[in-house]
Write a structure and sequence with these properties.
The protein has a single domain, classed as TIM Barrel. A five-stranded antiparallel β-sheet has the order 1-2-10-13-14, with helices on both faces. Strands 6-7-8-9 form a four-stranded parallel β-sheet. The protein is built from 13 helices and 14 strands. With 395 residues, the chain is α/β, with parallel strands linked by helices.
Length: 395
């Protein structure tokens, strides 16, 4: 893998799949004769998604570790970080073990949990940060914002002392969830606290141009700050939404001006990485129209095709930049793959040349709610290999 690391940033065209895969030192699904079937496809790294909801333990009617990791593999992801809004919330070693036992049993890729910042994600008492830190990728109360300024300051100080990172869902409940202020007002508070505590800070799913400006200023000031956005914020605007639960997520889609600002921020490095915020719900929870449906959409199986089609093929974003946003950047920030950020024997094979239509009925995820249903896209994952094992093979 190391020998071709630089070459796969833009994808290796597999004119001779057998020789390239031999260079990777792994047979194709254990069948050397199958290599010819992959001629004219492309090899890319395995992607990393730092923001997914796999719903287990506690909500396995929405998704399980098994189905969620299979969906990730089908979308070309070999590493995911799973959020802590579970039952039980991973706020102690005993509660975390319930989750990690399932991961060890059922995950087909690398699934890394985040611990919660506060007990039960209730924002009243700080979780066992010191005990959890060696076992989790970071700390977050994703799904809710921590409203108590003093509690958030103390939590961030303890996260820093534990050598970890605070991963923040910014939502000030004094403002309507749909408002711009709900996001950027709490981000402004958090950036002040990051400056005071020195805590490494990562903002989830940035969606407004005001938030982007705050992050730019924080980076210029030397704060250890990163952020992510999601495919839906880069490709949709609020005037394109319909009265359908598949368009409802948190934070909500903003304006076309916000979308253009986010694209600009991806290009100039203000946005460090792209994550899906894959958040499956049952069909009943997403079938009550826009107002009545649960917040959250699925995204693991559509992320790369949507971004490749709308941003790379249109000339907005270089392929190498998209690969960095989905691999090297998240790996560096969350310490995946060591200093070099390399995962031996992990790669994906893609058909980039033939269009296909997104059909939720084909998803491996138990969730079916996506705003991209029916979109014609390019970029279809044909195979995913994680640490030398084929974990997804189309057909």
């Amino acid at each position: 893998m190391t020998r071709i690391k630089d070459r796969i940033r833009n994808g290796i065209r597999v004119a001779d799949a057998g020789s390239v895969l031999r260079e990777l030192c792994f047979p194709l699904a254990g069948d050397s004769g199958m290599a010819a079937d992959f001629n004219d496809f492309y090899i890319l790294p395995g992607f990393t998604d730092v923001h997914v909801h796999l719903r287990e333990p506690g909500f396995s009617y929405k998704e399980t570790i098994r189905t969620g990791s299979m969906a990730a593999a089908a979308g070309g992801f070999t590493h995911v970080l799973t959020m802590p809004n579970l039952d039980p919330v991973p706020d102690s070693l005993d509660h975390l073990k319930e989750q990690t036992d399932i991961i060890a049993r059922d995950a087909c890729i690398d699934v890394r949990p985040l611990g919660s910042l506060t007990c039960g994600e209730k924002g009243r008492e700080i979780s066992d940060i010191e005990g959890l830190a060696p076992l989790v990728a970071g700390f977050s109360d994703d799904g809710v914002g921590v409203m108590d300024d003093g509690l958030m300051k103390e939590a961030m100080a303890r996260v820093r002392a534990a050598g970890s990172i605070a991963v923040a869902h910014c939502e000030d409940t004094r403002f309507p969830r749909e408002s711009r202020e709900a996001e950027y007002r709490q981000l402004d508070r958090d950036l002040d606290l990051a400056a005071l505590t020195g805590c490494p800070y990562h903002m989830c799913h940035v969606s407004t141009l005001e938030s982007l400006q705050l992050i730019r200023e924080a980076k210029k000031a030397g704060l250890d700050v990163t952020c992510e956005t999601a495919p839906h914020y880069l490709t949709l605007a609020d005037d394109e939404l319909a009265d359908d639960g598949r368009f409802k997520m948190n934070p909500p889609i903003k304006t076309a001006a916000d979308r253009e600002a986010l694209i600009e921020a991806v290009l100039d490095g203000t946005v460090d990485m792209i994550a899906t915020d894959h958040a499956p719900h049952s069909a009943a929870e997403k079938s009550k129209g826009f107002a009545g449906s649960a917040y959250g959409i699925v995204g693991l199986e559509t992320a790369f095709p949507v971004l490749y089609t709308r941003l790379v093929r249109t000339g907005i974003l270089p392929m190498e930049k998209l690969v960095d946003l989905l691999t090297d950047a998240p790996n560096r920030r969350f310490g995946i793959g060591g200093e070099a950020g390399e995962i031996p024997g992990s790669f994906t094979v893609w058909d980039l040349d033939r269009p296909w239509s997104i059909d939720p009925a084909d998803f491996r995820s138990m969730g079916r709610s996506t705003p991209f249903a029916g979109w014609e896209v390019y970029g279809r994952c044909m195979m995913t290999v994680y640490r030398g094992k084929t974990v997804f093979l189309r057909g």
